[in-house]
């Protein structure tokens, strides 16, 4: 098989998924001598229209892992507006040094149901959105080398195929897909952070509006960035993207979960590649 175009398609709040998907797609583009195009569906406006691909496209589609799954806020877009037509695909997930659980399998299954055929897949470690220490610096130089090797391996597999496979690539995970991971406190009680929203230190805020522009849910009021009027998915695009460090979380349950993750999962996790 010889795709005529390679697509880098991604949702990326803090940039690690973007970096990973672009790297893999660029490697595939080079190996296959096919041009590369990019579609970033992180901004809310980018998720309004349908996104369709054909049999001559190769789509590298990447997402962050949220609680071991595909982010639930993206499910309507992915299942209803992203379409393939016998389109080879490479699903990619990022995970914050804990585990990707079923996120890669779930993304693979969604793509398969929507007219794509996943021919390779990967889960890469990226710095956790909650933390600056959990998976700090990932993806690092060694990860980038693995991405390049993965891209070459996926390209070779495609070139050796006479036709599109009839079953998707095998990946790690469980079926049926398990429920979203639930954080718990020291007594085993569940911690609910769904309604937790970031705070703003207005003494530090410079009024640049970057947090509102970067929020993938469009939830931060650009006229008053201290107000988060819509849902918050804890992607931390506002926290990590604020040039003056004015955005922060102070919810006790959120902070307990953050520190627990940092304590338990300090070891460097390994990437998982499937070709």
How would you describe this protein?
The protein contains seven helices and eleven strands. It is of the alpha/beta class. It has two domains: 180 residues, Rossmann fold; 52 residues, Alpha-Beta Plaits. Strands 1, 2, 4, 6, 7, 8 and 11 form a seven-stranded mixed beta sheet that branches. It has a two-stranded parallel ribbon with strand order 3-5. Strands 9-10 form a two-stranded antiparallel sheet. The longest helix is centred in the middle third of the chain and has 20 residues.
Describe the structure in brief.
The chain is of the alpha/beta class and 275 residues long. It has helices spanning 16-32, 75-81, 103-113, 141-160, 210-214, 237-241, 252-264; strands at residues 5-10, 36-40, 51-52, 57-64, 82-83, 87-95, 116-118, 121-125, 199-200, 247-248, 272-274.
């Amino acid at each position: 098989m010889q795709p005529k175009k390679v697509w880098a398609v991604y949702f990326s709040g803090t940039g690690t998924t973007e970096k990973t998907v672009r790297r893999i797609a660029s490697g595939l583009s080079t190996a296959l001598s096919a041009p590369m195009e990019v579609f970033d569906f992180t901004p809310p406006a980018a998720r309004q229209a349908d996104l369709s691909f054909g049999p001559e496209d190769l789509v590298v589609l990447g997402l962050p892992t949220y609680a071991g799954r595909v982010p639930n806020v993206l499910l309507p877009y992915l299942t209803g507006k992203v379409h393939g037509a016998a389109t080879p695909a490479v699903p990619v997930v990022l995970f914050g040094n804990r585990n990707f659980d079923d996120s890669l399998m779930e993304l693979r299954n969604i793509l398969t149901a929507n007219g794509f055929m996943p021919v390779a897949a990967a889960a890469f470690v990226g710095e956790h959105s909650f933390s600056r220490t959990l998976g700090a610096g990932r993806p690092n130089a060694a990860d980038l080398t693995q991405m390049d090797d993965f891209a070459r391996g996926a390209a070779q597999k495609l070139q050796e195929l006479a036709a599109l496979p009839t079953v998707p690539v095998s990946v790690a995970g469980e079926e049926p897909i398990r429920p979203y991971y639930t954080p718990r406190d020291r007594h085993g009680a569940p911690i609910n952070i769904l309604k937790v929203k970031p705070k703003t230190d207005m003494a530090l805020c410079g009024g640049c509006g970057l947090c509102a522009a970067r929020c993938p849910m469009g939830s931060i009021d650009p006229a008053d960035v201290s107000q988060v009027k819509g849902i918050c998915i804890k992607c931390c695009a506002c926290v990590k993207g604020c040039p003056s460090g004015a955005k922060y979380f102070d919810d006790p349950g959120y902070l307990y979960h953050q520190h627990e993750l940092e304590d338990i999962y300090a070891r460097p996790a390994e990437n998982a590649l499937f070709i």
